[in-house]
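Many introductory courses stop at the sequence. We go one step further.
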Amino acid sequence: MPASDSPSSQPSRPIRAGDAEREDTARQLHDAFVEGRLTVDEFSERMRIAAGALHRGDLADLLADLPGTELLALDAPRSTEVATGRGSDVAMGAGWLVPSTVVVQRLIGDTVLDLAAARLTRVLTHVRVDVRVGNLLMIVAPDTGVDTAGLRVRVGGVRHQRGSGSTAQVHHIVVTGQVGAGIVRVMRPDAVFARLHRRTSGRRTSGRRTTD
């Protein structure tokens, strides 16, 4: 058998990474950041890459220059929480322990995920969306990065309020899936408060004009 045809000479195919490995890598990056081994920019960039890594080698590269870290092959069960409903709105926030995977599955109706008021139990959280008709509002703290590149909205759009970049992204949320018709908003708590204040002020002004 020619040497080029031997099994050992064939290039090895990269091994796919799973959610558990991405999550463990994110945890180790967070620990390294806390220890002062990564700058704010380095930590945020590596967290972004870890969240979307396809292969185990990509994750291993992120840990290669950090002492005491190791990419582990994990196959632990992932906890999942589903926000479902039809017609009525769904809101999840204060007191909610956010699992590693959240599924938003709606036929019709709006959904609010207040992740700033809730408690994020993982460094990396997946939000999987399957909404026919309805809006999704995600409220996130300044230290939480959100990746919506894997989310498809057919009619409507994604309005993503990004942070100033001066705050380290301690948590990372990856949003995937699809919305048939609706608006997906990612906002900071202060922006949500300001928006509600403008609405309230507008209603009061309109009421005064009516009675004058």
